[in-house]
Write a structure and sequence with these properties.
Elements: E1 2-7, H1 15-37, H2 41-46, E2 49-54, E3 60-61, E4 64-65, E5 72-81, H3 85-103, E6 107-116, E7 121-123, E8 126-128, H4 130-138, H5 142-146, E9 150-152, E10 159-161, E11 167-170, E12 173-176, H6 180-199
Parallel strand pairs: 1-2, 5-6
Antiparallel strand pairs: 1-5, 3-4, 7-8, 9-10, 11-12
Length: 200
């Protein structure tokens, strides 16, 4: 689950541009994964990602109100389950900055990726941990996993349908991934482990 808040200066973007930026932020998170995952888990997965755009009437930087002709400050605040924060930060900061500057080239983008403490996210009136969120999103594929028709993403624990998700064979084991981001992180992790083993 990610809750993304985008703060945009008044009159910097029109409503259509704000919508395009919001959709682009989601494409770098839920929508890419939803398209890659397909199957019954995709809709549940995508429903856990939200973007809200704020256009505050007052914005002060360095004791000066932001005005016409000033560099346009943009602030992104991403709320993520605490255990996910470190792993997703590097990807999200780069991808979200590009998504904003593609629409607003003069944007000066700052970002906060905040980890929500375990048990402090509520879904349908129930507090949930990050592991419980993943379990909820895995429900539609649990039977397929038991039958060997789904794989578990080694990076995030999501279940993915065999043959319908990014995959990689490593040392004789086939791994499936909810999105290319997890696959890329897995490859980087294995390369680091191999490098450490080679120098040990």
């Amino acid at each position: 689950m990610l809750f993304i808040e985008l703060f945009v200066p008044q009159n910097a973007l029109d409503a259509d541009q704000c919508r395009r930026v919001a959709q682009s932020l989601l494409r770098h998170t839920a929508h890419d994964a939803e398209e890659e995952m397909e199957g019954p888990s995709a809709g549940i997965f995508a429903s856990q990602f939200h973007v809200v755009v704020h256009r505050p009437e007052t914005w002060v930087v360095g004791e000066r109100p932001v005005g016409p002709g000033d560099p346009s400050p943009y602030m992104v605040r991403v709320h993520a389950p605490g255990p996910w924060r470190k792993d997703i930060s590097a990807h999200i900061i780069g991808a979200f900055t590009k998504a904003i500057t593609d629409v607003a080239p003069d944007a000066v983008v700052q970002m906060h990726v905040l980890g929500v403490p375990e048990g402090s996210i509520g879904v349908q009136g129930k507090p949930m941990t990050s592991a419980e969120l993943v379990e909820m999103m895995n429900d539609p594929l649990r039977q397929a996993y038991a039958e060997g028709k789904a794989l578990m993403d080694p990076m995030c624990g999501m279940l993915v349908e065999l043959g319908k998700a990014p995959a990689l064979e490593h040392e004789g084991t086939l791994y499936g991934f909810c999105c290319e981001g997890c696959r890329t992180e897995f490859i980087a992790k294995k390369e680091k482990e191999a490098a450490r083993a080679g120098t040990g």
